[in-house]
Amino acid sequence: MKEGNREAFNSLFRYYYPRVMAYTAAMVEQEVAEDIVQDVFLYVWENRRKLYAGEGFHSYLFQSAYTRCLDHLKKQQSVGKYSLHVEEAYLKEYNELFKVESSVMEDLYSKDFYKRLYDLLDQLPAQRRKVFILTYINGMKTKDVATQTQIPQRTVESHIYLTLKYLKGKMSKKDFYLLYILLLTEGMILKNIS
User: Fold this and answer.
1) Burial of 61 (0-12, 13-18, 19+ CB in 10 A)
2) Which value, to the nearest 10 degrees, does the dihedral of the CA atoms of residues 48, 50, 52, 56 take?
3) Residue 194: half-sphere exposure toward Cβ, Cα within 13 Å
4) Fewer CB within 10 Å: N-end or C-end of the chain?
């Protein structure tokens, strides 16, 4: 393998891939695990002259996969912190908006606001509207919505993202902040008018 023999590498790959894959998939999602394991073997091939393929090679493969899993999980945690930062920024802007416009709380409970919201939701494709209503108005988790609608969870998440993007583009800044606050409170107010 060190001399570039692909058959030697393929043999090693066939032997270790299922083992490293099973180990990695126990720590991260299947799709991420596949990427990580492929990355590990790509690294092995590209650095074959430097690596020792003796007894320590087995440990090296698993340690490499483990390290990459940790990196992935740290990155996900960082993304979560960024999302929290964005939420805090929205709340801060909303607070400023509230100070400037005393009628905001009146608008929050206003039927006009809900009429505008439901008019916009009515313009969405039926499945996307249903996913949004089940998630934010009925307060269901995306996993449960996926089960009920019989569509993949990633598709549910995509529908939610696209709906929020659509609403942000169609609503006034004030209305979108009102909606955002309602969503943060898990749609409690929205449930009362649906």
Assistant:
1) buried
2) -100
3) 16
4) C
Rg (CA), the chain: 25
Per-residue pLDDT of 98-124, as tens digits, reads 455 445 555 555 667 778 888 999 999
pLDDT at 92 over 90: no
Angstrom CA distances, 113 to 14, 121, 143, stand at 60, 12, 29
Spatial neighbors of 122 by CB under 8 A, at least 6 apart, are: 129
For residue 192, the Cα-to-chain-centroid distance in whole angstroms is 29
Q: Quick one: tokens of 167?
A: 């609403």
Put simply, whether the predicted model's pTM sits higher than 0.70 gets the answer no
Quick one: pLDDT at residue 87?
A: 60
The amino acid that residue 173 corresponds to is K
pLDDT of residue 30: 85
Is 62's pLDDT higher than 90?
no
Residue type at position 52: Y
Q: How far apart are CA 194 and CA 178, in angstroms?
A: 17
